[in-house]
Amino acid sequence: MAVHGIDLGTTNSVIARTGSDGRPEILTGMSGEPITPSVVLFASPGEHVVGEGARREALIDPDHVCDLVKRRMGDADWRFVAHGKAWSAPAVSALILRSLVADAGFATGQPPTSAVITVPAYFGDEERRATVLAGAYAQLDVVDVLSEPIAAALAYGFGRLDGLVNLGKSGRGDGAGVVETVLVYDLGGGTFDATVIELADRRISVLAVEGDHQLGGADWDQRIELHLSREFCAANPAAEDPMDDGIGRQVLRSAAERAKHQLSDVLSTEVVVAHDGVTTTVRLTRAALEEMTGPLLRRTIDLTRDCLAEARRRGVEHVDRVLLVGGSSRMPAVARALHREFGYEAELHDPDLAVAKGAALYGEKKELERMVAADLRTRGRLRDGEPLSDASGDDLDTACRRVADAFGVTLTQVRRAIDITVDTVVSRGFGVLAIDAGATRLETSWLVHRNDRLPIRTSRSYGTVRTDQEVIAITVVEQQGQVESSRVEDAKILTVGEITGIPPGYSAGSEIQVTFTMGFDGVLHVTAYHVDAGIPLALTVTTGATLSQAEVARERDQLGRTRRRP
Ligand code: ADP
Ligand code: MG
User: Which of 26, 39, 81, 196 fits a 20 to 30 Å CA distance from 446?
Assistant: First the structure.
């Protein structure tokens, strides 16, 4: 299928597509490695390296190596500066995407032009937009941004479909089909997401999301790194602290990560720290590692508990399955804590590749849907703008069969892709600033609430403050913390728009209707309307993550001037 699936991870990225048999397959470049570290080395003003090579280089040239860029997505002010050029987070991400595209082209002979890119469920509007921009920079048509846990669940659900006969044995059956409630615990390198998902026969619904996108394996590495530096300094009081030196620090970090990986398999390991002409061997046990990183793991458990509580409010009494994804969920302490706290038997589910595979499945679904709709439209069986569900059963059957024949896929494949629906929820609240009823102070009025089900279309009416008010400013905000707060300073301002040119003659309290719509991609659209004057306002949320047109043009140009060194 032409629409590829991309897991653009904080630490590692993966590209996949579905094969002719409908199964997702991972595409690899010349190295044959399925995983590309999300690391970029700016080797010279016109040359960069992506992946393992850049990661290795980080040890000797840390100043020109950019990693964990995903943590910066949505931060419009952040730049990585190398060789006198400034790179925004979407621009750095575009270099990673371009590398994946080249690898996919190497594998299939045809570089992809469109993709579904995954993002953490907890990503807000700005981060999602930044991801779409990264895709555009890489000349990819981003068909959709998909939440990573949904992708993981899709990959799992696909495997489950393959084993249909086993279905009856697990989950709840109510005659109409088996419903399985799944908790996806995703601990990657830089982000943590807990999501409760319901997998029904043809429907995947997200019931609750929780997460922290500043929490992941890298934090574990930091704790270990600190420990190694302390031990080294204690043993060599006269030597320089490796943490005080750029290269020393990188070397320490990579040793820390290696030790962490080993301790997922063995109970004890030795780390050699060589710095400033002296060498010390530090012995590290799994128990010590778990002790020094206990608070980090506890935070994931607390967030998981919140997520489960939210799911319970939505009627989930029982979790049937716990899927562990993300490389860090390989740490034995994770499954143990989930068992101890909740009694779950968690299982590792293709922790490195499930997200990309799910994205590929979703990409295939989008592609097939588009083709079936196009077929119906050209034959006049579906009007422009009408959803597929409006087509008659017979028409749909015929169209599916034609698409299956034309593209050499099976009819079942087409039907299955089209029938599966994905329901999801919004990860943060959105609202506008308004003066409270007592007309005393400005406060946030929430139109969209966290965990509301997507797609959303919601309207609310407000009154003008003065008679003959000529201009009405609409300030759109996004929720910052875990809970909705009416305090203005707790919200993040996304954009400000104005309804202008309102003629005189309207009294105070004239109705202003504000409408928020958000599709499955989680991107917000705002319209406002002065009802009596009949003046509309359409707002695109452009501040924050989204760079100015001039900046986008500059970056495009800059991206055109750097070549990937293989
Ligand atoms: P992301 O989704 O953030 O790109 P991944 O899911 O690829 O990240 O996970 C990367 C993280 O997983 C890194 O922090 C890495 O150190 C960690 N990791 C990978 N394998 C192991 C292991 N065997 N034990 C512990 N941590 C691991
Ligand atoms: Mg990931």
Answer: 196
CA of 110 to the centre of ligand 2 (A): 26
Q: Kindly report the CA angle at 421 between 204 and 385, in degrees rounded to 5?
A: 155
* β-bridge pairing 141-147 and 172-173: unpaired
Measured in Å, residue 7 CA sits from the centre of ligand 2 at: 7
What is the tens place of the pLDDT at every residue in 178-221? Answer: 789 999 999 999 889 999 998 887 788 888 888 887 899 999 99
547 contacts: CB under 8 Å, gap ≥ 6 = 76, 88, 90, 133, 555
Considering the entire predicted model, what is its pTM? Answer: 0.84
Cα angle for residues 127, 130, 134 (degrees, 5° grid): 140
Cα-to-centroid distance, 373 and ligand 1 (Å): 40
Q: Which of 12, 55, 225 to mutate to test the pocket of ligand 1 (most atoms within 8 A of CB)?
A: 12
Q: Are 144 and 169 in contact (CB under 8 A)?
A: no
**Strands 36-37 vs 12-18: parallel, antiparallel or unpaired:** antiparallel
- Which of 300, 328, 349 most suits a substitution to test ligand 1, by most atoms within 8 Å of the C-beta? 328
Cβ partners under 8 Å of residue 340, min gap 6: none
What's the 485 CA to ligand 1 centre distance in angstroms? 34
The Cα 458–Cα 41 span in angstroms is 45
Contact 483, 508 (CB under 8 A): no
pLDDT digits (tens, 9 = 90+) for 227-267: 999 999 999 999 999 999 988 998 999 999 999 999 999 99
pLDDT tens for each residue of 134-146: 999 999 999 989 9
